[in-house]
Structure formats: C-alpha cells, structure tokens
Design goal:
By secondary structure, the chain is an alpha/beta fold. It has one domain: STAS domain (Transcription Regulator spoIIAA, 2-Layer Sandwich). Helices cover about 30% and strands about 30% of the residues. It has 4 helices and 7 strands. The strands form 2 sheets. Strands 3-4-5-6-7 form a 5-stranded mixed β-sheet. Helix 1 (about 45-55) runs parallel beside helix 2. The longest helix has 13 residues, at about 75-90.
C-alpha cells in the first residue's frame, strides 16, 4: 500500500500505524485484575488498536481481564473478532465484558457471544467476581 508523498511520489504506508481518534483504550490494574476501558467505535478501522492494547495486557499476566465496553458506540464484526481472538489467547475463564447498551449487547447476543463471555452491567461487578 502506498500514499502520495512529496512531489506526487508514492511513499509506503506503515501497516501497523493505527492513529484513528475514534477509539481510545485506557488500561488500569485493580489488584490481580486488569481493566481495559474502551471508548468510541469498534470497527474495521479501529479493531487493530484494540487488539494491540489487549495483547499488551497479557504481558502483566493478569488473573483476569475485564473489557469495559460501556462507552462503545458501535461494535462491528471486526471488533467481535478481536474479542473472540483475545479470549482464545488469554485464559478464557478470566475474560469478562462490561456492557450496558444496545449498540454493544445486540451484536453480542445476535452472534451468541453472550453465551461465551460473562457479561456484566458494571465494571465493579465484573472486577469483584472470583
């Protein structure tokens, strides 16, 4: 892939650069649990950013990972793929989701991922599970 550079020449694109401002992640450690709070839209353009953030938390070897999706306005198929891929890499029993709105719950239910992930209405509920 290339983008126009100076004087109309093509410059190679960095395939790992994902500077999409429509997604933000904040990682927080609460005891042995790592919380990844996600804000924005989770689609084909932003899914790589979430994947990078999630894989980065595994380095800390958390007991559990809570992915807080309460501030996500859109959850597309690419976002669902990142969530399921992460669950396969992490300890599946230790991945929990926080979701409280239709834009996130609907695709999770439609794809039956609500049967795969434990889903909580609040972050504190998800963190307190033992």
């Amino acid at each position: 892939m290339s983008t126009p550079g100076p004087a109309g020449k093509l410059a190679p694109m960095d395939p790992l650069a994902h500077d999409d401002p429509s997604l933000r992640t904040v990682v927080e450690r609460i005891g042995a649990v790592t919380v990844v709070a996600v804000t924005g839209e989770l689609d084909i353009a932003t899914a790589p950013d979430l994947e990078e953030a999630l894989l980065g938390v595994l380095d800390g070897e958390p007991e559990a990972v809570v992915i807080d999706l309460t501030a996500v306005a859109f959850l597309g198929s690419s976002g669902l793929a990142v969530l399921t891929g992460f669950q396969q890499r992490a300890d599946p029993a230790g991945v929990r989701l926080v979701a409280d709105q239709h834009a996130v719950l609907h695709p999770l239910r439609l794809t039956r991922l609500d049967n795969v992930f434990p889903i909580f209405g609040t972050r504190s509920e998800a963190v307190q599970v033992r």
